[in-house]
From TrEMBL:
Protein name (Swiss-Prot/TrEMBL): Na(+)/H(+) antiporter subunit C
Keyword Cytoplasm carried by entry: no
Membrane-protein topology: Multi-pass membrane protein
Family assignment from sequence similarity: Belongs to the CPA3 antiporters (TC 2.A.63) subunit C family.
Length: 148
């Protein structure tokens, strides 16, 4: 039996759209992308599990015609994990909205510094000059927070 091409296309569309939204800078869009990806993966699990069969209960029905319970268990586990991640990301989005009235993620200064060093192809250990610059940046940040 061949897999249902419609379900495969739906799963591929959900996964593609989910990845696109997950790469957005908005927390809410990333959450929707995560949910779409989770649903697409669940559909792929069910498509990959094969054709529907009898209920997998011992001593009832032909063992050759029983459905495999492992993909069903994986989908149920994925649903629980998706629910927990959704609650966590919603709490992050709510907190970001409370603090900044915006759900866009800001650029991380440490990440920008690492990218600058990678562009300069200087991935060797930090020199003493870099350590002094970093210490000065942290000192400025600490004094700025104390003044607030």
């Amino acid at each position: 039996m061949s897999p249902n091409i419609t379900l495969i296309l739906v799963a591929a569309t959900l996964l593609g759209t989910g990845v696109y939204l997950l790469l957005a800078r908005s927390i809410v869009r990333a959450l929707v992308g995560f949910l779409l990806m989770g649903n697409g993966i669940n559909i792929l699990f069910m498509v990959a599990s094969g054709p529907a069969g009898d209920v997998p209960i011992l001593d009832q029905g032909d063992p050759d015609q029983m459905a495999d319970p492992i993909p069903q268990a994986l989908v149920l586990t994925a649903i629980v994990i998706t629910l927990a991640m959704t609650a966590f990301v919603l709490s992050l989005a709510h907190r970001a909205w409370q603090l900044g009235r915006d759900d866009l993620l800001e650029d991380d200064e440490e990440s920008a510094r690492i990218h600058r060093r990678a562009e300069e192809n200087d991935m060797s250990g930090e020199s003493t000059d870099d350590a002094d610059v970093i210490a000065a940046e942290f000192a400025e940040e600490d004094t700025g927070e104390e003044e607030r």
